[in-house]
Amino acid sequence: MPPRRPPLSLSHASRYGTCRSLCCPLALRPAASSRKCSSSAPAPPPNSTVDQPHKPDHRELGQAQKLFTHSPYSPGSPLFLPRGADLFNKLQGFLRAQYEKFGFDEVITPNIYKKSLWEKSGHWDKYAKDMYSVQGRGATGKGENAEAGEDEEFGLKPMNCPGHCLLFGSEQHSYKELPIRYADFSALHRNEISGALSGLTRVRRFHQDDGHVFCRPSQIQSEIKSSLDFISLVYKTFGLGPFKLVLSTRPEEHIGTAAEWERAEDQLKAALDASGQPWEINPGDGAFYGPKIDIILKDSDGKEHQTATIQLDFQLPQRFNLAYTAPAPELEKQGIVEGPEYEEAVQKDEKGPVTPVVIHRAILGSLERFMALLIEHYNGEYPFWLSPNPAIILTTKDNPDLVKFAHKLASRLSSIGRATGPEHPYRMGRPRLRIDVDSASASMGKKTALARQKGYNFILTVGERELRHTESVALQPWSQPGLEECGRIMDSVWLHGKSKSSKRTAADDEKRDALAEEGTPALRKGKYVMVPGKTLQFFFEKLQDSYC
Ligand SMILES: [Zn+2]
After folding, report:
1. Of 60, 161, 243, 500, which has the maximum CB count within 10 A?
2. Domain range holding 129?
3. Which residues form the Aminoacyl-transfer RNA synthetases class-II family profile domain (predicted)?
């Protein structure tokens, strides 16, 4: 479904716009090259915006909607409340579904590695100050005359790349297996200075939608193109954009030779040209081990806002001695895999090891930071599939039968698509749909006002009539964006729900035709419509599947 929300309001994008990205390659950039981020500034006093419209702030919304909190016992590491965890898990679930589409395999890797791993990757030398060190039994880092690898302190990982190199190196690979694409949602830690911490945007513990592609030199262009397609698809789903592509080239502080850098940059330029999207160069702003493509979102004010990153890396696989076997290895290294010269070499049965290229990529970047962006982008009115408060059922009275009925309905709607017999576990598939019940004895006016204040997408009401005639429920859209599209979905499921009935009769067909004639009731914010229970299930199911 095409997004109906306007592009990200850039009035608040400055909070992120020039943040140092938390994506793995960037996370370890020298502090000197990090950019200033307004989110690191203290929140303005509440009365400072008296003359201006109040801008959405994820910290305020997060508190009001009970999404996350912080504790002085772990500064900079957000604690997600159940509804915040829902939102987080749905973002993860969404990406997991796309991983299948784009050929990524999820892996699980350790949080701590010995210092010698970080020395091997080159990070301990340059960026140890940004990392937490961990000590433990037999790992004090203080042992005298200890052999290398013994009594070493550990580093808490700020990135996943070295772990993924260990995975790749744990098996023999043929060129036929490549590209191999690993994805990892591990928690990452960075020792940010305390003054920089803020909400979900500047944190010490975060998760990335981190991915590493191990590919042949000849596959670089298509892999970069695929990553750009992935980004376009995801941002379109969230209604974010437009974005521009920026190629950052060799910085002063770097590893690797000038020739390697030149070759890497040429590959990225070719991929950018092939993408058909406009791009520009940001000279000298690459990470120390490779050039990168940053994706910069543009808001309605023209301000810019960095999120995703794609980075080519010729250095890391060399440091880890990674290799795959390929015919005509000398040509393979140059990305030549066809033509008379190649055919001749293959016929001579030349085979040998070739170092793969690594592409680091993150589509959302830090999930925490992306959540902050979405919370403000949607300003509390999330699409149904993502909403921490998708629906609530209000009972008109607190009589036990009615309360029981409401909970039964909530349970039925919550387990859409997963319901099985009582003896069997739920099927995996759609994420849980949280349907709340308010059975308090307060007036309907008060209960409705409270539900609206909490920003539920839909408010359902059940009373004596629904209890007697369990076929229909009163449904009131409230914080649901895109009601026009929702109406179209309701239209389609209304008839579909009817035709699904196994007990359908000629009279049902007539009724269906009549319904088709008069159309389904229009969905309007704050207005109740009566919806058959089965249709409501199909409607919610379809909203989830359509990312509405
Ligand atoms: Zn990486």
Report:
1. 161
2. 112-156
3. 84-383
